[in-house]
């Protein structure tokens, strides 16, 4: 599978840590140059990527701001000349009870979890279409099938991301651009451990067929397939990678 990524350019949002960091390093190890947009500082990840012999472009970017996204894409194209792989990984997910959720807060969920993916696709697919090759992966969530209190805005926007995936796949199937969603279960990261109670990890683990908590590395194999040349006839799909969770 490694040869199918060699020389590609991958754009990954939210890659300063967590899943995005794991995805960036895995793609770099297989020959991709990496561009990262994150509101957090991603210079440490960039250094790790460059230690693997790949080039990087990193820009701090509030993905709720369309102007910042456009500047990021301009930087990517100036640095690399193209994008072959887009991984819409960044997510906004503070746990907010519905009674406390304001329209302004809900719109921030929409902006980061859906609108940023739309705009990045809008800006990067013309080049993919021209070259006849592209891979877009939207990181979804198992919460779309098993919503919990406090996650209304997150679940709603993650479901919208799945709809965007299916619709983009229909738009670009004739152009060699394959668009799929990858749906993790509850994954242990620094952010998830900080924001979610320990008992939630325990209860989800007990409902999985695989009886351990999911780690970022567990998603890498699926991500590598969906972004590779070997994924030649899979599009418009949501791939569940959640340990077989059964509620």
UniProtKB/TrEMBL annotation:
Pfam annotation, one family: adh_short_C2
Alphabetic keyword roster: Oxidoreductase
Matching PROSITE patterns: ADH_SHORT
Superkingdom of the source species: Bacteria
GO MF term (any one): oxidoreductase activity
Record domain Ketoreductase: where: 8-185
Classification via InterPro entries: KR_dom, NAD(P)-bd_dom_sf, Sc_DH/Rdtase_CS, SDR_fam
Family: Belongs to the short-chain dehydrogenases/reductases (SDR) family.
Official protein name in the record: SDR family oxidoreductase
């Amino acid at each position: 599978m490694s040869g199918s990524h060699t020389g590609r350019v991958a754009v990954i949002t939210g890659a300063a840590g967590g899943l995005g960091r794991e995805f960036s390093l895995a793609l770099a190890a297989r020959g991709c140059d990496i561009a990262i947009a994150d509101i957090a500082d991603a210079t440490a990840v960039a250094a790790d990527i460059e230690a693997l012999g790949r080039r990087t472009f990193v820009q701090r970017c509030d993905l709720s701001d369309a102007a910042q996204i456009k500047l990021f894409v301009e930087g990517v194209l100036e640095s690399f000349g193209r994008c072959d792989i887009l991984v819409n990984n960044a997510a906004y997910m503070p746990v907010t009870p519905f009674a406390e959720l304001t329209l302004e807060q809900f719109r921030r969920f929409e902006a980061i979890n859906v609108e940023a993916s739309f705009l990045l696709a809008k800006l990067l697919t013309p080049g993919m279409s021209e070259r006849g090759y592209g891979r877009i992966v939207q990181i979804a969530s198992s919460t779309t099938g098993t919503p919990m209190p406090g996650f209304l805005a997150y679940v709603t926007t993650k479901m919208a991301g799945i709809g965007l995936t299916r619709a983009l796949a229909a738009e670009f199937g004739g152009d060699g651009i394959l668009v799929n969603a990858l749906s993790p279960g509850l994954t242990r990261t620094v952010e998830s451990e900080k924001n979610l109670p320990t008992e939630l990890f325990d209860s989800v683990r007990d409902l999985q067929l695989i009886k351990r908590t999911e780690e970022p590395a567990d998603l890498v194999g699926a991500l590598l397939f969906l972004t590779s040349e070997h994924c030649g006839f899979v599009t418009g799909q949501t791939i569940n990678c959640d340990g077989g969770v059964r509620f």
